[in-house]
Design a protein that fits this description.
The protein is mainly alpha-helical. The protein has two domains: about 1-80, no CATH class; about 80-145. About 75% of the residues lie in helices and about 0% in strands. The protein has six helices and no strands. Helix 1 runs antiparallel to helix 2 (about 45-55) and helix 2 (about 45-55) packs antiparallel against helix 3 (about 60-80). The longest helix is centred in the middle third of the chain and has 24 residues, at about 85-105.
Length: about 150
């Protein structure tokens, strides 16, 4: 059901609701096809699809808030505040990045080159999520934007 104002009227005209819904559903439809590709794959499309659907639908907005709320618990589970585990994640990310870099430099087939980019992106993501580096970077960018 489309979001409505307090008086019961639609927030957006019907053509806008239909256009954003088609765009959101198209993004969600493409996720399984682009998910296996190296790099972020279908994750940006999944986020874009739910974001577009959340403009007009409360259920999509609720799903986004549910994921945001529970993703912090998941990060705490995988990246606990223990020095030994933090160092283990850092070493793991560095080793995997080096493997991806080696694969990129030695591979001649384009599939392995693409796989190497995905490996390096994944290890960089692990490195940034560990020790709250991504949160720190986000706060620095927000501070810089306010100046």
């Amino acid at each position: 059901m489309a979001k409505k104002n307090e008086d019961g009227s639609r927030q957006n005209p019907l053509w806008k609701v239909i256009a954003t819904d088609i765009a959101g559903i198209t993004c969600l439809f493409l996720v399984p096809f682009l998910g296996p590709l190296p790099g972020p794959g279908g994750i940006p499309l999944l986020l874009a699809g739910f974001g577009l659907l959340a403009v007009n639908h409360d259920w999509a907005d609720d799903a986004i808030h549910f994921v945001k709320k529970h993703s912090e618990n998941l990060l705490g589970y995988f990246f606990p505040d223990k020095p030994l585990i933090k160092w283990a994640w850092d070493i793991f990310a560095a080793v995997i990045f080096i493997v991806g870099l080696w694969l990129n430099l030695t591979a001649e087939w384009w599939v392995f080159k693409g796989l190497s980019y995905g490996i390096m992106a994944g290890s960089s993501t692990v490195f940034m999520l560990n020790r709250g580096r991504l949160d720190w970077l986000d706060s620095q960018v927000r501070k810089f934007g306010k100046k």
